[in-house]
Amino acid sequence: MPEGALPLTTDKRPRKVGTVGQYWRLSGGFWRGVTARRAWLLTLATIGLVMANTGVQYGINRWNAFFFDALEKKQSNIVLSAIGLFAVLAVASSAITVLQLIARMRLQVYWRQWLTEQLATKWLADQRFYRLSIAAPDLDAPEFRIADDALRNLSTTMRRPKSWIRLGC
User: How many domains does the chain have?
Assistant: First the structure.
């Protein structure tokens, strides 16, 4: 071990690569404490809206068979009712998609706000801002980097579950 180097167990310097456990210890606190009610409400709303959207898409798939079977049998009254049913399904799908987007974006904004506050609190602890101004005086506005890191972190996290669902994992 080089002279002056700390053993890994006591080295408190940040690492470029962390573990999933470390990530959730930092950002998972949003679902506990003061923000828990809002966090869980938005999380459950997002999950519920994804399930509702899946149900509507299933309904559109079933409508497809219903509509084309009626066309094949030349049942004009059923075709007209199927067109009306499609309009209802299209409106429902659009409304659910918009609500899903709103819930997901609100969750992301509130989570980012909470995480930025947590990171800024850690940043201000132990006079890190003062030590950094001495160690790296030409480094300006680290607080903007904190907010940007929180945004990148949460954007990546919010995208991952979608890709996992698409892959069927």
Answer: 1
Does the residue 24 lie in any domain?
A: no
| 19 in a structural domain | no
Helices 76-124 and 128-135: angle between axes, nearest 10 degrees: 80
The pLDDT score that the predictor gives to residue 169 is 40
Whether this prediction's pTM lies above 0.70 is answered by no
**The domain containing residue 93 runs over which residues?**
36-163
Give yes or no for a contact between 150 and 113, defined as CB atoms under 8 angstroms apart: no
Q: How far apart are the first and last CA of the chain?
A: 42
Q: How far apart are CA 153 and CA 147, in angstroms?
A: 10
pLDDT tens sequence across 115-125: 888 877 877 77
